[in-house]
Design goal:
The protein folds into two domains: 7-130, Aminotransferase class 4, branched-chain amino acid transferase, N-terminal domain (D-amino Acid Aminotransferase, Chain A, domain 1, 2-Layer Sandwich); 141-290, D-amino Acid Aminotransferase, Chain A, domain 2 (Alpha-Beta Barrel). Helix content is 25%, strand content 27%. The chain has seven helices and 16 strands. It is globular, with a radius of gyration of 19 Å.
Length: 302
């Protein structure tokens, strides 16, 4: 799966620092911490007709990540919301939009890893693009198991939503060479963690299973799916899951802001066989879509 360029994004305006600029001028300094060492945190958010989806949850995680990385200063929530609103309004975006919200540690006085060199405050970037969900929920996706392991808390804690994504990129490269849509990443013990860009769920005998959030991102969509399943009486288990269990799953799907809920139809060349004839993925997609209006913050409230 390769995302295609949307011509509507050719002349978009992007928020960088403290102002809106044209796409061609949307740049950061070579001394910015994101360039120097991937020293930044970010969120991916979707905009529906009713507003920005799960905005407060995303801003909570952004702030938690920045605090975990000891950012000296973090923009106020109201200033971040104002930047998001200004960006969306400048581009006339009210739906079918994905926002990549990035907060870097900012510009350094000289090249180096020491955060004490960052003395100008953080850099806020609001990149909003016309981008409907990137996967086809009808045909589903094919995935393969990557040799690249997902970071454990003893290395780089995945609960920090940081910009150092080289592990995920290397896994995606393997998926590209294998001719499939996404890479499945295991943890350091060999249990399933997540895919290179999304969390993962599977269904077996009517029970919804997902890996514990030890070596995977505690995704916003992931959390909402668990809430919806439990609220509707579905059995849910968060635990270690092996590849063997995924191969024998009735259903499987990925979750994330970029693609929402995406069915998985093949793992390592093995087509998933739904022996129980369950239809829980489709049901969860329906429940999820029903939350769009309830959990979206209108632009007028930003």
């Amino acid at each position: 799966m390769l995302q295609q360029f949307d011509p509507r994004n050719k002349n978009i305006k992007v928020w960088v620092g403290h102002r809106l600029v044209e796409r061609t001028d949307a740049k950061v300094s070579v001394f910015d911490s994101s360039v120097q060492g991937g020293d930044a945190v970010w969120e991916g958010m979707r905009v529906y007709q009713k507003g920005v989806f799960c905005l407060e949850r995303h801003l909570d995680r952004l702030e938690d990540s920045a605090r975990a990385m000891a950012f000296e200063s973090i923009p106020t929530r109201s200033s971040i919301k104002s930047a998001i609103k200004a960006t969306l309004e400048a581009n006339g975006m009210t739906k079918d939009t994905h926002i990549r919200l990035t907060l870097t540690r900012g510009e350094k006085i000289t090249s180096g890893m020491d955060p004490r060199l960052n003395q100008s405050g953080p850099t806020l970037i609001v990149l909003a693009e016309w981008k409907p969900p990137v996967y086809d929920n009808e045909s589903g996706i094919r995935i393969m198991t990557s040799a690249i392991r997902r970071n454990s808390p003893m290395h780089v804690d995945s609960k920090i939503h940081h910009n150092n994504l080289i592990n995920n990129i290397l896994a995606k490269i393997q998926a590209n060479h294998a001719g499939v849509d996404s890479a499945l990443m295991l943890d350091n013990l060999g249990f399933i963690s997540e895919m290179n860009g999304t969390n993962i769920f599977l269904v077996k005998n009517g029970t919804l299973l997902t890996p514990t959030a030890d070596a995977c991102l505690h995704g916003i969509t992931r959390g909402l799916v668990i809430e919806l399943a439990q609220a509707n009486g579905m059995a849910v288990e968060e635990r270690n899951i092996s590849l063997t269990e995924l191969y024998a799953a009735d259903e499987a799907f990925g979750t994330g802001s970029m693609g929402e809920l995406t069915p998985i139809v093949e793992v390592d060349g093995r087509v998933l066989v739904n022996r129980s004839q369950s239809n829980l993925t489709a049901q969860l997609i329906q429940w999820f879509e029903g939350e769009h209006e309830k959990l979206s913050t209108p632009l007028t409230n930003l």
